[in-house]
Amino acid sequence: MKVLNFGSLNLDKVYTVEHFVRAGETLSSSRLEEFCGGKGLNQSIAFARAGATVFHAGCIGEDGEKLRRMLADNHVDTTFVRMMKQTPCGHAIIQVTGEGENCILLFGGANLCVDRAFADSVLAKFGEGDFLMLQNEISNLDHIIRVAHSKKMTVALNPSPFNSVITALDLSMIDWLILNETEGMGITGESDPDRITAELLNRYPAMRIVLTLGSKGAMYADRNNRERHGIFKAPVVDTTAAGDTFTGFFFASILNGNSPAASLRIASAASAIAVSRKGAAPSIPSAQEVADSDYLKPAQK
Ligand code: RIB
To answer: Ligand 1 centroid vs 291 CA: distance in angstroms?
Structure first.
């Protein structure tokens, strides 16, 4: 079984601010830092740091060599990372406050150069039983899902960011959906977590769902089982990529044969470490750091 993550690669420009810029306001930031990011790249690195072997597919501009290098340095296979001429890389302008909250403005750039021919050429190298991870920051998502489903790949979707692309998708082709409450509300119209998962299972009975609940933790639901896990308390420095860390660690654990309950616990520990560090990809811990963390130590009597 091979793991393919077809997703975005972004250059993140992170501005430290007192508060998010308001309409009509000019605000000075106290610091600018640049990190490798993009939900796709972050999740590939999380898979790899969690111990999975992962192929990343996606497009970068000529200014994106450091993104490819970041993946390669983390043992992600970059055979399917394509460099586009005369198109800038995707980038994100991220404001981070002293409380570690963020808001993100995206520019798709080369991420939107994923065309059907490129998608087909990548997917031709994968087949039945292989695992495909997707987010919503690249073009032709609907085509990729259709082709992967027809090849009997296992398709996992993180419908983030949520927009009209997601509402137009046929989610019956999705095996795993990993989403937050806002995305759950956008898809189902429900705000209560139990009602979100119930409505998803009503529409898609075979779906396996992971719903992240911010400070309330995360839950797993399928038609037979439900699990819930709280958060591990951590000093919050920057929440960017905490969700991506959760996603990579959760699925790496599932693909390693662990139960959803055990995987929620590992992913929660990994994302607790990620929020205590600055940046997107650089904040993602290794499997060893997660295993050695106090979060996963048995409770003292
Ligand atoms: O999930 C965090 C990521 O969202 C950032 O790295 C940014 O690039 C955006 O894609």
So the answer is: 25
